[in-house]
Design brief:
Strand order of the largest sheet of chain A: 1-2-3-5-4
CATH topology of the largest domain in chain A: Hypothetical protein af1432
Pfam families (chains A, B, C, D, E, F): HD (PF01966), tRNA_anti-codon (PF01336)
Largest sheet of chain A: 5 strands, mixed, barrel
CATH architecture of the largest domain in chain A: Orthogonal Bundle
Radius of gyration of chain A: 24 Å
InterPro entries (chains A, B, C, D, E, F): HD/PDEase_dom, HD_domain, NA-bd_OB_tRNA, YhaM_exoribonuc/phosphodiest
Number of strands of chain A: 5
Number of domains of chain A: 2
Structural class of chain A: alpha+beta
Number of helices of chain A: 10
Helix content of chain A: 25-40%
Oligomer: homohexamer
Protein name (chains A, B, C, D, E, F): 3'-5' exoribonuclease YhaM family protein
Largest interface: A-B, 66 and 66 residues
Strand content of chain A: 15-25%
Shape of chain A: globular
Keywords (chains A, B, C, D, E, F): Hydrolase
Chain lengths: ~325, ~325, ~325, ~325, ~325, ~325
């Protein structure tokens, strides 16, 4: 089996193909120039320094390029690092498509589209249905390719749609368990809640905040688009359904301190907020735990108040207590 | 159909049977004594004043007694109030069982026991299974009759078990949706998380905090019982499974400010905390909205940062936008 | 000179015309019905109780009606109160226009319009100018008649426009004093910053929050209208000037905790926020101090963290220190 | 035109005169000693390392000395840095006055004195006037040469007086706009509010906190001096004017958390606090934006909660929207 | 034995002498005037209403007067209240000295003076000693008669001196236990830390905040007096000892939020702050517990974050565990 | 006299014996391996780098080993550092016992045991006495050898017992000064309050948090042990004395934010919390000040909100003010 970037053990030498995620030219204390590069494939990222860099090197080894890399896995300040023996651009007869080296959502684009389509049929309120269709249509391409965040959770290609679908699944469970929930409102809110990120973020690769993202935030961005869409669909600006839908989006961060201009004032808005939080938490914790061994603590998770999480040793699931598994009550 | 206590309209005169929830003897500014009573049936509560109270009246009209009540529904300081025409203890040939007038969980005790039994079979880890059985056994009677809180959410007979089951249901959905969750730990934690309330609270009626509840809180109460039970079951005090289970219970309030001595440091602990919060939120909002009419705002909900929630006018679910319900993607 | 409602001294008997601000029918402990009324004229408000209320009384003595009132100024729980001797609706040959009894801005509507017009000429940036014109036009009537808040500051007819003008005046001083400020952006932001209140609030009389106000807040309301207006004016949604203007509006509460989804990230946005705060503070303090005598403390001011303010005894401005008023430096 | 320190472009070689702001002797990993120097002129600061440092070098290249510097502008860890080719002390026939290399207030000392003098004439209350004169006299030299802060805002020679004057100017606008403000109190408070910094800080160069500054803070320092001065001027300690003036100074940080032992309880104290904050904010933002190009974000500003500010691309001020600039209202 | 005001049981009739603590004339809903009086003796306070009040009654029954009172102990809204049968001013041949009815410190004035004198001898640093003598001399009368607070803790005549002595006692224990503490500084700081309350508060009876108290607070009041005293004693303003002593006083509230302009930066200042807090806490808790019976909770204590405290049933101190009281280690 | 590790001055060459506190193998930028070591003796710690490290070196130079060290005291990034000339393991005929190089409590183990024994006799309540004996017995060895914290305060061998004794001493003073304190409860609480640290921490050397420590915290650890011990001693779980003792332990951090699941609700619990805080504060400040010279500020102290403390120049204790040391009052 092919080894990936993070599979090599300490001091192991290797040859492989990787994507350049970032590359900065710097000067060492001794005056020599070098490229500080971060390499990436679907297994993760590791930095390395490329010394004696020529002008041509600096121009060709740029973010987004796939390279053939020969080197050794070392360590610097207790973090993994690659000592570079040889590096050149990948040829067209070699693996050279950047998308092959980027993490992707665990569902295919088509599976995600199917799920979304199915949910839209359940949005039986005309106002919500039409607005959701209009806006998903407008941002479809970005919606299925963007990450859900610059870093933190669901920070992979397709992460935005996948995070939306995770929330929709939980929402279906909640609708089943509790009576009296306005399901179309909840689903419509879930579908639109993070759609503004297609404008807030620059794209699936080298993701940065746009000017609109920095000055407005994704809540206000999509809120204004909902109004615009409603206007074009001939829906009155004071229509209660429209106000409810805007509230779902504007309040989904839950607290003013987290950027929601209003706290949830609808049952469905409170539910959306809590499901959003839960899906993001689970994803962040699972990502962090995936990087450590049983019996260890994860790195601090910024999005969870810098908590570390513990990975237990073994998950013994056998049932051997000798007790008769008879009913308790 | 029989009208209940909160069904009578303004100025309506009535005869009915109700439970005395509380009764305090007071003196009015003009020097006369009266009983300030709160009447209750399953529809809710309304206060009333009983004037010219004799010593005998004060002794017989006490909390927990069912009375025949003849009066008029009035209003005082914008709150409903009953003007009492006549009041006497209910006779044994009349409705007189206090439990008939108290709200109950929407599942029967047996249904709840069945669900719990079933879940225990899914706790395939022997350590968790044995501890859970031991403690549920010890507190079984209280567990199925206590409320989940003095006020706030699930404050009805059987509320503690019902709240536990609601969390278990959500937990099953989460386990299905996300891989890699330690289901036995999550279920065991959910079953025990509020069990300390059987010691923290005084009982299903006239619920107050006990001294142990006030000085220790239900987290520390059940934590110590887990250790005691493990000790008797011969489980070592430093057994990792035991430590994990204790952590589930101790951390389930999520924040130190909410009384958890440790924040969640396990994926399952974080999930339990979030499910606990979500179930409580939904129940509190639904209760509050049930008391108001469409287009109105609920009272402030203490357990949700004093927010008011809005009850929309109509939940139109028809799908008549003329658009062909074809797939979007 | 005619005495106003708050001019009467303790125990003084009087006849006058006043506006009914609010009137609630209640039942006293002794079972009798009465109307709890708040009377109002431009001098302030005083409550009174109208006893032995007939059905007809309850129907005619409603908010918004002007009445002839004969009574005595008394005190209840240390607050002024009116003992009502006689009350009837004002006839058409008596003062009976409600607007005569409501506080108004210290500028006439025309003076305010002139000032706004003049400022618009100074908005020399086409994007800002066109959007400001479009939105002020749409909401002109409300803009010049609404208060700036339900209570707190500028809670009088015309208060919204007057508050806006106060900020513009301070903004002109700031632009003069500091070089490099984008004046058109600052003025446009000031003109629009609270315009959403024309939708958030119900009107100049008996002001309440609308549903849109409660669910969205005036920041998001006007933000979406800016986008809609820009769309109709053919201004591109990603135009930098448009984004800056939206940011001015969205960030003007300064802190996320105060409902701004973004904190100010432009020099002009920070200035707008601080001027807004300063004008509101001065107005609240001056209102509170106007009600007390020198040497006393004002009531607690809710909008200023419940602080009380002190009114000094005398403001001696004579210069009699015997020192020669020669230059110091 | 002469280029300044921060004008040189990447890799540019240069000769110039600069001030040594700080110089620390350190040992590199390879064991060699070097001086880590920060060079400064009125354009800003850049660090550089001076290698192979002799004992004599270490004694002559100290903070406050002007040097002839020959070197190249490079970059280290993405920050500008100077590679030193040659360095020696400036001779007396070369630029060698340290004050030539330090930033100064944009007004001359005389202009500032004139403005202060004029304002003192407007302090028509004898108590305020005499105390202000006494204390400005005592600290005159420091007042016109000190910075207003160790870093943050107005951190240049003369910054303290300039910051005071900026507040006075804004205060004049406020006095003009709002009636009923006690102008002499406001001006006297503004003049004294930061005067304690002449004791709190060590001086205009290499500014540090003094022991008194660290243990007492500039509010308590000047407060005690006001009392001492009043005592010598024969003003009674309980004189209301004196108490008001002390309150102006003690409360001007606005919040207890910011070191004011009392929050503002006078209209004038609240105004002073807000003007102080506004002037500091504008200055900090303008300084931060001056260092970046249009379309970029400033560094985080510590004194403004670590916010970054955005510098827009172009400030188009032409009025070409084709619309007739007729009156709107 | 003579019964005191709070000794009478429910419905008990009595005759006694009491002090009028406060008396407000009010109008009942039925239009009749009455005096709302609070009666007081050393056992505590109880309110009562005096009906059919004449003009003469209103003039003679004022705060500070001792009255003969005949009445019954009743209850209103669950709080004790007195039904007044008869009331007249006490004659000169009856108990009529107000000071007999006010709580006092548990030490006599002379005992407190002796303790203070003794401590001053231990302040062997001349700077501290001279300043302490000067200020205690100036405020001696108030220092030994004022309470330590308007309400909260030590709110009795002589409370200020007694609280100071309690801290000094604890300080002596700390000095004995830990080496290296600057005892003279600690004692001097303790002696002066609350001395400003003699200016902040109006007096031992009917204690209110003065204007100086409201605008400056007792920390700044005494700080300025220290400087003034030092100035007259010829101690230089920058003398380190003087700065340390000022810091002790200014920082003793511990947190900026509690009104200290600086947090403690000296070991002795931190100790003073903690001792101050501990003595106040113990006094507040003991006062609150004195009012309830074993097994009950106290009222909420404002100065301790509104906590209630529990009074245990019995304090069994017998040693009967059958175990031999041999050494453990 | 023998010089210790931190006694050597800059650039001084030396030979000595020291303990290796930590040793990590790293790779320098130039690719060479080195050991980053921290050396320690009772005077403190200093790091050093050991270059050209062989496999054998890495295996023998590990934490806990005593080495002969020849080197020079240098400085790196303004922190002291050792340049290593020669290093080898200490022989058995040289100083080689690790305990000789670790800081210890200022009392011997026997002195501490004597003090504890004596205090236990004063715990005259049988319930407290028996539980305290049982738990101290169980953890005796750790109790007298563990530090009281991983870092912060009392982080030396025996620190846990010494910290407990310091609190007991202060508690004795408090009991003497204030009447009505339940001394046996206070002493028992003090003895047990931190005993859970014997399970929370890994040991006196290379102290880390254990899994139980991380997941439960020392409060819950000892709380559960108290319950277990009481169970075995036949003390009923709802015995009031038992609940009080558990509350002492659970509430001793004072605030929920600091990990106490309940805030103190007993007078003795509040006292224990404040004494705990005071002893820790004094110890932290004294440690920090011991490292700096008079006139300097300490490093920031993490456990005291990152405050720096000032070390005054001289503590002049002579009494030479010329004033007659006569009584003041």
């Amino acid at each position: 089996m092919v080894k990936h970037l993070t599979d090599f053990s300490m001091d192991e030498e290797f040859e492989t193909y990787v994507l350049i995620k970032s590359a900065d030219k710097r000067v060492a204390k001794n005056g020599k120039s070098f490229l500080s590069i971060v390499f990436q494939d679907r297994s993760g990222q590791i930095p390395g320094m490329f010394w004696d860099v020529s002008e041509q090197d600096a121009q060709q080894f740029i973010p987004g390029r796939v390279v053939y890399l020969k080197g050794k896995r070392e360590s610097y300040k207790e973090m993994p690092q690659i000592k570079i023996y040889e590096m050149r651009l990948a040829r067209t007869d070699e693996p050279h498509d950047p998308l092959m080296f980027v993490k992707r959502a665990p569902m295919t684009s088509q599976e995600m589209k199917d799920y979304i389509n199915q949910t839209i049929f359940e949005i039986t309120n005309a106002t919500y249905n039409r607005i959701v269709r209009a806006l998903l249509n407008r941002h479809a391409k970005s919606f299925f390719s963007y990450p859900a965040a610059k870093s933190n959770h669901h920070d992979f290609a397709g992460g935005l749609a996948f995070h939306t679908i995770s929330i929709l699944r939980l929402a279906h469970s909640v609708v089943q368990q509790y009576s009296g929930i306005n399901a179309p409102l909840l689903y419509a809110g879930a579908l639109l809640h993070d759609l503004g990120k297609t404008v807030e973020l620059s794209g699936p690769v080298g993701t940065e905040y746009t000017l609109a993202g920095n000055l407005l935030g994704h809540l206000s961005i999509i809120d204004a688009e909902i109004v615009e869409a409603a206007d074009k669909l001939g829906i009155d600006g004071q229509n209660e359904d429209l106000l409810l839908l805007r509230h779902m989006v504007l309040s989904h961060h839950g607290l003013l301190e987290y950027g929601s201009p209003e706290r949830p004032k609808l049952l469905e808005a409170e539910i959306l907020h809590e499901l959003d939080e839960m899906d993001a938490s689970i994803m962040m914790i699972q990502n962090a735990l995936a990087k450590v061994k049983p019996g260890e603590y994860s790195d601090r998770i910024f999005g969870l108040d810098n908590r570390r999480f513990y990975k237990p040793h073994s998950v013994d699931q056998s049932h051997d207590d000798g007790q008769d598994p008879s009913r308790l009550f």
